[in-house]
């Protein structure tokens, strides 16, 4: 490949941080008297925005709701964010980088934050399962192509 065919790709993590954090235990202390057989639901999404040329903020939003019967034991919400420098990527490459590669870097931090919040709320540790952001992104792109581009992922 000739040297001038494609600009050199560069990727760097500038910063990783919690953008927003919330933990609610609406039914304490009564919930502590119930047998611990929780039903856990997890809502997950990503968003990305261009901050300046080649600099992007990516956010992984995680909401974990843990219930016993019909009562909420706790609700943990984390917006785990990062600022990334990406240059030399084509438009077709930017989508997977911003909605798959970068979220893969951020998710372990969000996972730890959720687990820590549960522990600090005096609940058993909650370990979120690993997430395949490549598959989630591919599914989102398929939905967009099926609907003619409506409902595009947040950028």
Can you describe this structure?
By secondary structure, this protein is α+β, with helices and mostly antiparallel strands. The chain has one domain (10-123): Roll (Bacterial Protein-export protein SecB). The chain has helices spanning 91-120, 133-146; strands spanning 10-24, 39-52, 55-68, 71-87. It is elongated and about 65 Å long. The two termini are 32 Å apart. The relative contact order is 0.20.
Explain briefly what this protein structure is:
This protein has 155 residues and is of the alpha+beta class. It has helices spanning 91-120, 133-146; strands spanning 10-24, 39-52, 55-68, 71-87.
Structural class: alpha+beta
What is the average of the pLDDT values?
91
- Going by CATH, the architecture would be Roll
Main β-sheet description: 4 strands, antiparallel
Question: Percent of residues in beta strands?
Answer: 35-45%
């Amino acid at each position: 490949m000739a040297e001038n065919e494609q600009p050199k790709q560069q990727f760097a993590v500038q910063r990783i941080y919690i953008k927003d954090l919330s933990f609610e235990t609406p039914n304490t202390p009564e919930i502590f008297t119930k047998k611990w057989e929780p039903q856990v639901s997890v809502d997950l999404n990503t968003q990305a925005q261009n901050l300046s040329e080649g600099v992007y903020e990516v956010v992984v939003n995680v909401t974990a709701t843990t219930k016993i019967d019909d009562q909420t034991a706790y609700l943990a919400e984390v917006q785990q964010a990062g600022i990334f420098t990406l240059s030399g990527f084509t438009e077709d490459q930017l989508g997977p980088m911003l909605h798959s590669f970068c979220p893969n870097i951020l998710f372990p931090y969000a996972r730890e934050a959720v687990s820590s919040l549960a522990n600090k709320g005096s609940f058993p540790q909650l370990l979120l399962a690993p997430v395949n952001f490549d598959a989630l992104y591919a599914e989102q792109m398929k939905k967009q192509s099926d609907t003619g581009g409506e409902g595009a992922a947040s950028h």
